[in-house]
Amino acid sequence: MSEAENNMAAARPAHRSRERPQTPSLLKDVLYLLLKIAAIIAVVLLVFTFMFGLHRGADASMAPAVKDGDLVLFYRLDKTYAVGDALLLEFEGQKQVRRVVATAGDTVEITEDGLMINGALQQEPEIYQTTQRYAGGVSFPLTVGESQVFVLGDARENVTDSRVYGAVNVKDTLGKIITILRRRSI
């Protein structure tokens, strides 16, 4: 051997390690994927348990806005309602979608002419039926109390709403409707 070859041989390490590039195993990848999926499912469940909710409209009391079979997405954390907002509430074990027609301090009257709020006859272009009193319902005129709303169904005939059970406490509502999904056409 020449001197140059001896120097090169001395410069080389005595043994070469047979290291392979680190590649994750298939099992590790699958477990990591399952962990990600479980985390996403947990987040979705938490969000839909505490922030949002889904309800299937089961009657025609809010037609044409909410029809039988539509899915209603509601926001549980916002309970500040304005006139015209739709909300979800529970009455006698049944969930109902209703529209706010009067808020705290408003005086509601139902006459032969229709719905009157604070002495003014209400023009409701999306309501196709007349608003009438119910024989066994609440007494009018009714002043809506603090932290209460007066709600009616959009289909005004034969609907159980505030004409029957009076003004609703805001804290007893389930949430504000934020969107309606037409499930029948999916």
Helical fraction: 10-25%
Instruction: Give the distance, in angstroms, between the N- and C-terminal Cα atoms.
Output: 83 Å
Radius of gyration: 32 Å
CATH class, named Mainly Beta
Kindly name the structural category.
alpha+beta
Largest sheet: 7 strands, antiparallel
Residue-averaged pLDDT: 88
Number of folding domains?
Answer: 1
Shape: elongated
Number of helices: 3
What does this structure look like?
By secondary structure, this protein is α+β, with helices and mostly antiparallel strands. The chain has a single domain, classed as Umud Fragment, subunit A (Ribbon), CATH 2.10.109. Helix content is 20%, strand content 30%. The protein is built from three helices and eleven strands. It has helices at residues 3-11, 26-50, 162-165, and strands at residues 52-56, 71-75, 86-91, 94-103, 107-111, 114-117, 120-121, 142-143, 148-152, 168-169, 173-181. The strands form two sheets. Strands 1-2-11-3-4-9-10 form a seven-stranded antiparallel sheet. Strands 7-6-5-8 form a four-stranded antiparallel sheet, with no helix packed on it. Strand 6 and strand 7 form a beta hairpin. The mean pLDDT is 88.
